[in-house]
């Protein structure tokens, strides 16, 4: 069978796959373009399976905030290497996936991946096609939907991390600037919970054990290990829960005090932190 350069180029233009991959697909499909497209799609699935265990430490974080500022959706599309994260096809797919999430009001990753896009294929199928095209693992590493009276988002300059904060009891106050500051703090200081009562019990148990072990190694008597560990736990709460953390821009106050200074009764209903890598 004579597969011409024009045939290969036509398939390449249609699918975006590499020249050699297009030629192989056309040979396997005996020149049938539709079958060749299917061959390339199946190849994408094979690549995805082979690279399933690979790390995805690069990528892009994108955000969409509703016009009234009452909700936000944040997407983290991850890949294996930085060059791929800068490829237009990768960035375009990330934008298209987030747009689909906004259009269909997807609240979680599972729902997002199942959305059918304009061509009738799902988000997951589009990701699989891109995997076949670029030869790297690509995943939605995170996707969050946040509601609130006012939601503010900050994306770090490298577009690999974002902080999202949802306010309550805004009372007409302008909270965009303080929201950005707090979202930046979330990215930088990585709080594990809003307040100490929200910390996972397993984390608390682990911190107590760490505190005891540290005190034991310092030669402290067994009888006071629990007391020392509880003191260390309080320090952990202060440094790792958002409301108790010192405000990075003004360490003389914590985030809870910052909220009160901004607007009496202003609260944080929830927050999220997304990072690739």
Structure, described:
- There is one protein chain.
- It contains eleven helices and eight strands.
- With 277 residues, it is an alpha+beta fold.
- Among the domains are: 5-50, Helicase, Ruva Protein, domain 3 (Orthogonal Bundle), CATH 1.10.8.10; 58-147, Tetrahydropterin Synthase, Chain A.
- It has a three-stranded antiparallel sheet with strand order 1-2-3. The chain has a three-stranded antiparallel sheet with strand order 4-5-8.
- Helix 2 packs across helix 3 (33-50) and helix 3 (33-50) crosses helix 7.
- The chain starts with a helix and ends with a strand.
- The model has no long low-confidence stretch (mean pLDDT 92).
Q: Biggest sheet, in brief?
A: 3 strands, antiparallel
CA gyration radius, whole angstroms: 25 Å
Globally, the shape reads elongated
Instruction: Count every helix, treating DSSP H or I runs of 4 or more residues as helices.
Output: 11
């Amino acid at each position: 069978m004579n597969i011409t350069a024009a045939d290969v180029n036509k398939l390449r233009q249609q699918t975006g796959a590499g020249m050699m991959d297009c030629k192989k697909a056309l040979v396997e499909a005996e020149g049938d373009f539709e079958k060749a497209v299917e061959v390339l799609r199946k190849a994408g699935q094979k690549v995805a399976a082979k690279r399933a265990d690979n790390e995805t430490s690069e990528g892009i974080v994108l955000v969409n905030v509703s016009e009234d500022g009452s909700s936000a959706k944040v997407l983290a599309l991850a890949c294996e290497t930085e060059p791929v994260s800068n490829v237009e096809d990768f960035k375009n797919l990330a934008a298209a996936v987030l747009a689909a999430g906004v259009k269909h009001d997807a609240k979680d990753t599972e729902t997002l991946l199942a959305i059918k896009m304009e061509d009738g294929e799902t988000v997951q199928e589009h990701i699989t096609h891109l995997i076949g095209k670029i030869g790297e693992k690509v995943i939605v590493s995170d996707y969050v939907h946040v509601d609130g009276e006012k939601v503010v988002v900050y994306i770090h300059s490298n577009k690999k991390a974002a902080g999202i904060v949802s306010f309550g009891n805004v009372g007409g106050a302008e909270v965009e600037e303080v929201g950005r500051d707090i979202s930046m703090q979330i990215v930088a200081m990585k709080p594990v919970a809003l307040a100490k009562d929200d910390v996972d019990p397993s984390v608390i148990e682990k911190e107590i054990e760490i505190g005891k072990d540290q005190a034991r190694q310092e030669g402290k008597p067994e009888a006071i290990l629990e007391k020392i560990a509880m003191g260390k736990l309080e320090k952990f709460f202060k440094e790792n829960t958002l409301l108790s953390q010192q405000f990075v821009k003004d360490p003389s106050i914590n985030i809870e005090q910052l909220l009160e200074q901004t607007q009496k009764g202003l609260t944080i209903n929830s927050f999220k932190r997304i990072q690739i890598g």
